[in-house]
Design goal:
heterodimer, A: about 375 residues, alpha/beta, Transcription Regulator spoIIAA, four-stranded mixed beta sheet, 12 helices, about 70% helix, elongated, B: about 270 residues, six-stranded mixed beta sheet, four-stranded antiparallel beta sheet, 11 helices
Amino acid sequence: MSERDPQPRITTGEPDGALRLSGSWTLAHADAIAAALEAAPTDARGLDASDVTRLDSLGVLQLLRFARRRGLDFAGFRFSDEHQPLVSAIDDVADDRPHRKREYGVAEALARLGRAVHNNWKEVLALLAFLGEVLVKMLRLVREPGRFRATPTVHHMEQVGLDAVPLVFLLCYLVGAVIAFLGANVLREFGATQFVVELVSIAFLREFAVLLAAIILAGRTASAFTAHIGSMVSREEVDAIRALGLDPIDLLVIPRVTALLVMLPMLTFLGMIAGLLGGLSVGAFGLDIPPQQYLARMQDTMDLRHMWVGLSKAPVFAMLIGLIGCLEGLQVTGTAQSVGERTTSSVVQSISVVIILDAFAAMWFMEMGW
Amino acid sequence: MSGAVPDPIIRVRGLVNRFGAQVVHDGVDLEVRRGEILGVVGGSGSGKSVLMRSITGLRRPTGGEIEVLGIDALNASDADRRKIERNSGLLFQDGALFSSLTVGENVQVPLKEHHPELPEPLLYELALLKVKLSGLPADAVHKLPSQLSGGMRKRAGLARALALDPPLLFLDEPTAGLDPIGAAAFDRLVRTLQQALGLTVFLITHDLDTLYAICDRVAVLADKKLVACAPLAEIEQLEHPWVREYFHGPRARAARKAGGPGLTAEASC
């Protein structure tokens, strides 16, 4: 339709000094309209648009702007009867224009920085408060075991733990193999290829298994918790839970946190086995250390305490991942964008917290001589 | 607004829609004439929204033919599809505004997409104009959808639907969830805009007041078919059980008193 429309045109030379408009003054010809009005003679005293074939709100708006720029009286412009309702509808609302808001400049940037710092501090406080609240309510479960929700807990255990088994196993296996391979390359120069066994075992038992499992769950589970709870918040489901006299902490948070508390140590243990198997495979196929010899050396050199050190960190990480995931979800404010932002934030927070805490724990365990 | 738009502007022939084993439409025929407000009614689950989604191309029907603006919508080329999109505006039930954009930016989305050549100040003024035409205060352009009430969100959704000056407007339950005063004001707004902009309106509603106040013709969906499409005065005389119950219940009587069917029925037929 619009492709075959006549171009908007302005002709002059009317006896009363008015511009005569013709053609199609619609959105499809926005460029031509702007050009035609720009080129209009400055001595025009009026405007006659009654020959215009098609007119839409862009056309009227441009004529209004034209009248404003040239200081002409818009009420004196002539339009065809067909277009009159549109023109008057637009003319009715055309006054009162709010100023455009601007959020640029140094002051604004400083204000945003200040707000961000303040918000970060509030997040830390909120996390601590939330930790306290959840711990209190978990203790209450001891007194009132009837409040415990077994079915959702098991459901989350499956999603959090069982469904993550292949991923955790594969990644730990590959990282174990890579460590063995790279370690052997360096150790070979000292004729100490055998020490690959200790390298892989200590690395995996103490650090990598729990760290990898925690990071995978932070990416996989914390984000799922946030997105799920967040969309429940934005659809007022959490308010409904409260209004029904139920406690969202009991209903939503504790089953998820419990599932993580149970499953993360198990996944860590699985990760240890996978990592050791990765080292074992590289030993057998790449370094001429047969499996029997590899296992015998592990038996000789490793203490059980390495495994306990690794496993002891798992529940702490689980608690943090679960709390951050749920808390971020509960802080969603209704918009789709907020769900996205909170999900990103929960993954970033839980991964960084896990790694920072792991660094401190490593130093502490070393100083303790464990 | 006239141009080469054919009459009827929408033509649906033998429309079939199935979800698995569940049949929603089994041979729906419908024509929407240029310049009318067509109200579509039907019980919950009778497929009003599915009909709208089929016509607007959001859902591919299982069978049948749909012609919009003279274009075969189901076998259209990409260019033709875009032409239909450019020429039709949709208002979803809760406005479906993009929650991360302000109202003004929401209205600018279709403008920027279809007319990237428009300069920024003009875009802004055009968006402002649509917002005010939809009956919102001017400062609403800078607000986020979450800062608006339900009724204002609907108006903002209407402003976005009108962004491209489409000759064809689809409204999905525009007055649902509004208080009676807000609903009546919205009805008036639709009527005013329809006359000023020369729109054809396809309006899904449960609201009897809306039907009596502004609809030129009413289409009734029941039993997987279109049982009738006529001015209200004729629909009321139908013997169909659902129609009788719908138009002769206590709510319908009240609405009829308030709106007066004869007044609008004559307007079209």
